Amino acid sequence: MRRYREFLIPVVVFGLAGFLPLFLKTYYVHIGILILIWAYLATSWNILGGYAGQHSLGHGLYMGIGAYASTYLALNFGLTPWVGMFVGMAFAAAAGWFVGYATFRYGLKGAYFALVTIALAEAAVYVVSNWKAMGGAAGLEVKYLGTNPFMMQFDGKLPYFYIILVMTLLAVLTAQWLNRRRFGYRLIAVRENEEAAEAMGVNTLGTKINANVLSAVMTAAGGTFFAQYFTYVGPRVVFGEMVSVQILLFAIIGGLGTVWGPLVGAVILVPVAEIARAELGTQFQGAHLLLYGGVLVFTMLFMPKGIVGLVKSVRSRIWKTPDDSVSAPAPEGGAS
Amino acid sequence: MTPLLEVKNLTRVFGGLTAVGDLTFHVDSGEIVGLIGPNGAGKTTCFNLLAGALRPTSGSVFFKGKDVTGRKSHQMCKLGLTRTFQVVQPFPDITALENVMIGAFVRHGSTGAAEAKAREVLDVVGIGHKADVLGRDLTLMELKRLEIGKGLATEPDLLLLDEVAAGLTPVEIDDILALVRRLNSEGMTFLVVEHVMKVIMNLSHRIVVLNFGSQIAEGTPAEISKNPAVLDAYLGEEEYVA
């Protein structure tokens, strides 16, 4: 039983969140869906960016692949997005492997890795914009069918809420699972000190590529949901830099490399941004973007480990200091 | 019996500089072999070549009778050859226990088994009581012990120690020496690079001396300390040798 306790908290938290829409107006359910979309995407990004420390600024690439794959297949072959989602994930896996291999094989790190990922996502925007079958710059519209669960379409918001709730739960459980598994430890080792990790038997190249693939696959599934919810995909909308940047924003503000960070970041920031957009949208376009920028700068300066990191360090200070000072210094020289 | 490690005509050239040239030596199972030489003699390059961090320009490395020339670090580690770093390389943001667990995962797939192994190793290197302290919060002495622990956790047959004594007080050095001797008596083989002569002379069964990337002498500590070529290479540092 103890083995599964780590998964109990997320299940309970998300189970309780499942009751929220019953008390909320439709508009707030919409906000809830937005929160969960970004929490899901940021959690997916966090596996590569937070755990493995490779800051991709081009996750729009995978999101776009997921969104376009399911939408294209539904429009042209009538394939249900439930299956199209997995096709998109498979394409994203291939793309994630390619990007990972092409960059990590040649030792690209930090800003250089980030720049290449931006460039690839941006290239995808232009490729898709000029791809007739993909609707070109106009994008693709998901054909309206009314409520049709088989085609992942619903008139109300509630079903969407529960779909993304389950997806986000699965993403959080994946992060929780990594937290206490060999692969997760290896991701952290790569982030912390690549040379030492390699010397301690960690295949750093393979680990980074795998992290990129896992992260890409998860992101692509989010892309499919995004397309179904907004019933539209456009090159800039899903592949663009806005998406790529927002994905990592919530993870950074919430806490890099933590299970709950991306979710916490999205829960706090999305509603504020939405209010800003709703209240100031007409007079002051892009107010929410300014807000994101401001919060990001504040986070970087005053809590570089994000909200969850801050909470953790405060907690450990309160809990640990007393018994550290009580216990006598343990005897040295246990070695001899 | 084939030696545990056999180095044949190992050469590494950086641009026009031959950092290691035509180096040949071996390490037998159960030995502690010292690798010494003046600054810039090629000791660390040699370590990097053996551990797979660098590819040799020419020559070959045999480990357990197998040609392992050009293998990568993580592959060498899995084969049973692990190196420690001269400048300690902890994972700063995770605990000492987790630092060591990364190494334990080489032989143990499950977290529970890796954690048990890591706790055992932390006790062996004498920082068991620091298990929950973050890598960044350890003292230099603790980090040196952690560095050895990280290597031990990979359960190597041959552990390459790169200047473990550097920066430690004489008392701390004695502790580390006792630790290495004990591990050796339990069957672990060591190749040790060291600047502190007291360490190398006390510890090594056999010493290989490098200068300008090539071997200039080999023998027991007693022989080495009388070898004229070695004295020449260390001219001005004789008092340390004696």
Which overall shape of chain A is indicated by the principal axes computed on the Cα atoms? globular
Order of helices and strands of chain B: EEEHEEHEHHHEHEHEEHHH
The description of the largest β-sheet of chain B is: 6 strands, mixed
Strand order of the largest sheet of chain B: 6-7-8-3-9-10
Overall pLDDT of chain A, averaged? Answer: 90
What would you call the shape of chain B? globular
| Order of neighbouring strands in the sheet with most strands of chain A | 1-2
Structural class of chain A: mainly alpha
Give a quick rundown of the structure:
The complex is a heterodimer of chains A (336) and B (242). In chain A, 73% of the residues lie in helices and 1% in strands. Chain A is mainly alpha-helical and 336 residues long.
Describe it for me?
The complex is a heterodimer of chains A (336) and B (242). Chain A is an all-alpha fold and 336 residues long. Chain A has one domain: ABC transporter involved in vitamin B12 uptake, BtuC. Chain A is 73% helix and 1% strand. Chain A has helices at 2-17, 26-51, 60-77, 81-104, 110-129, 158-179, 182-192, 194-199, 204-230, 235-239, 241-254, 261-280, 287-302, 306-326, and strands at residues 140-141, 232-233. Chain A has a two-stranded antiparallel ribbon with strand order 1-2. In chain A, helix 2 (26-51) packs parallel to helix 6 (158-179), helix 2 crosses helix 11 and helix 11 packs parallel to helix 14 (306-326). Chain B is α/β, with parallel strands linked by helices and 242 residues long. Helix content of chain B is 38%, strand content 24%. Chain B has ten helices and ten strands. In chain B, the strands form two sheets. A six-stranded mixed sheet of chain B has the order 6-7-8-3-9-10, sandwiched between helices. In chain B, strands 2-1-4-5 form a four-stranded antiparallel sheet, with helices on one face. In chain B, a hairpin with a 2-residue loop joins strand 1 (5-14) and strand 2 (17-27). Chain A binds chain B through residues 180-182, 185-186, 188-189, 192-193, 195-204, 330, 332-336, and chain B through 51, 53, 72-74, 77-78, 82-85, 89-94, 98, 101-103, 105-106, 109-111, 114, 123-130, 135, 145, 150-151, 153-154, 174-176, 178-179, 182.
